[in-house]
Amino acid sequence: MCVSSPSMKDKAVQIRPWLLADSDFVMDGSQPLDPRKTIFVGGVPRPLRAVELAMIMDR
């Protein structure tokens, strides 16, 4: 698939679907997930589950 932007035309992109059950994780289950305080992490070299990414970032 190709995507264009103002600075680059027809850049090849890869789309990796993510299993929705693995797309979010809250370390403290008593705290609700606030969508205004969520982030997108791109450039991850391999598929990760949200819990794995949270553990890496918590180190």
Structural write-up:
The protein is an alpha+beta fold. It has one domain. It contains one helix and two strands. It has one helix at residues 50-58, and strands at residues 2-3, 11-12. It has a two-stranded antiparallel ribbon with strand order 1-2. The protein is elongated and about 45 Å long. The termini are far apart.
Number of H/I helices: 1
Proportion of beta-strand residues: 5-15%
Low-pLDDT stretches: none
Radius of gyration: 15 Å
For the largest beta-sheet, the strand count, sense and barrel status come to: 2 strands, antiparallel
Distance, first to last CA: 36 Å
Strand order of the largest sheet: 1-2
- Structural category: alpha+beta
Along the chain, the helix and strand elements come as EEH
Provide the helix percentage: 10-25%
Domain tally:
1
Quick one: how many beta strands?
Answer: 2
Overall shape: elongated
Q: What quaternary form is this? A: single chain
**Mean pLDDT, all residues:** 83
Give the key terms.
two-stranded antiparallel ribbon, elongated, mRNA regulatory element binding translation repressor activity, translation factor activity, RNA binding, mRNA 3'-UTR binding, alpha+beta, 59 residues, CPEB
